[in-house]
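Run: sequence + zinc ion -> complex structure.
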Amino acid sequence: GHHCWGYGEENGPSDWYKDYSLANGDRQSPIDIQSEQTVYNSSLKPIWVSYDACTSLSICNNGHSVMVEYEDCDDKTVIRGGPLEFPYRLKQFHFHWGGKDSRGSEHTVNGKSYPGELHLVHWNAAKYKSFDEAASAPDGLAVLGVFLETGEKHSVLHRLTDALYMVRFKETKAQFKDFNPSGLLPDCLDYWTYRGSLTTPPLHESVTWLMLKEPLYLSEKQMEKFRTLFFSGEEEGLRTRMMDNFRPPQPLKGRTVEASFR
Ligand SMILES: COc1ccc(C[C@H]2SC(=O)NC2=O)c(OC)c1
Ligand SMILES: [Zn+2]
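>> structure
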């Protein structure tokens, strides 16, 4: 629509409240996870990821992030367990990252930012007829978040970082088949969970967050490839590099963050 929210000086996170009143809501995301304040909940189940029959469709630059979209017409690609009462269907995954490694993640841990953050977005198809309907329902979405940390090259992620040249500009899309995102998950699925929101407009308070404690490690060269993308379209004169596409932590407002681990 005519909304032009973004991450710049004039349209960034501190301006979003003007068009999206939920920006100052009671369950906004991301948050700073203060590990000493989290509550270990022994009745939290393990996260169960069933992505083996997934059908990835395309990779696209939507002007805010780079996203891989999945076929979500049945329950072949779901996440279960954790605090979730239903299976949630994988819809897409995307990333947030910084202009340098000292920033980039949306969630922080004890005030520490990571160079980036992966979001695997799922919706409650057991209860809602469409993703759009689920996206504004209090138990509509579940986002599995994984911090990005620089280190060794990530071989599964390499197929994605090698495809980024095809989607450098806003509104570009390319075929991206047979990509199983379980290859992006760390071995340890210990997580923190809390009730939150979309981290971009419209900021719906519809997300059960599952943040993994263990990061995904990728090389500096792979990080740099994310920074070759553009927020702007190919036809636009001013080419603004896609980086720092993260919302800073929001007030906890009395929420409890639960931990699946001691
Ligand atoms: C209208 O529905 C929407 C709109 C935006 C996003 C993407 C946001 S939400 C997140 O966690 N990160 C992001 O960049 C979304 O994803 C569930 C769903
Ligand atoms: Zn996100």
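>> summary
DSSP finds three helices and 15 strands in the chain. Residues 65, 94, 119, 121, 135, 141, 143, 198-200, 202 surround 7QY (ligand 1) (CB under 6 Å).
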